[in-house]
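Notes from the 1:1 (GR / supervisor)

We went over the backlog. Supervisor wanted to see one worked example end to end before approving the batch request, so GR pasted a single chain during the call. The sequence is below; no edits were made to it. Supervisor asked that the structure be written out right there so they could see what the output format looks like.
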Amino acid sequence: MANLPIELIKAARPAHWIKNFALFAALIFSGNLLSKPHVIIVLIAFVSFSLTTSATYIFNDILDAKRDRLHPIKKYRPIASGKLNISTAYFTAFVLASTSLYIASQLNFLFFTATLSYLAIQALYSLGLKNLSIIDILIIASGFIIRVYAGAFVINAHLSVWFLLCVISVALFLASGKRRAELGVVSKVMIGSTRKSLTRYSKRLIDSYVTMFGNAAWMSWALFTFFESPPVDLSVWLFLAEISRTTTISKLMMATIPIVIFGIMRYESIIFQDKSEAPEKLLLTDIPLVLSIGIWLISIIAILYYASAMP
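Structure output shown during the call:
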């Protein structure tokens, strides 16, 4: 009983909250990162959505406890291992979901709707949709998309159709990558007993999904940077433009494309080596991937807020 708080924290999977930083995308790209009121409201939204995701993780673990005991990694989860009883888990999931929805309702209606939609979709996923091939990948991807747009709803920010294309492509890339990594971690004998949808995927098929959406991800980012780069405003770039037309910079954000390509290539190299089945673990532990994301983020902030005139 003394370990109950620890087991509850483990069941809530706070490491997975890293995915909820997607809520900050609209804050950054709308030019509101330096606005204290906007930052505060997105931070509150982040807390609310993190409670929501934790509730769905616990609910899913309750339903999957029997199968998780057969999985080489998931068998150590609190509910599957028996360290957290079912009734406590149900109560915790209910409290987290209720608290999250209350906070969301105090922010604005659209954010509340996005949060409620996420809960409903994830509940349906846990109740059976996760067993349907292709549908399971689409639902996983929808979770990333809802996160990004929940962050936009809460500050009433506009995101261009090009950015929407980026979000969809990256979400599908990460979702298919997750399934590909699961196939690598779980042996052929155990696939059917741990997740039914995996029996309908072959590594060759999933590899084609990962490759297709990986290409779509960097291409959609390239299109976004081309069409949505703000006008250059920093004196050094204006000076270069005066020296020669050859050095004129008008699409500075396109300089981040190689970083995105490296990140995608690194992620693919890891999952194809069957080293991980969770994107959030890679985002926390793989140094080259963490560095590429950090450099990309710093570059974007520097370009949007210090080298360009925001539209």
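Supervisor's comment: The chain has a mean pLDDT of 85.
Batch request approved.
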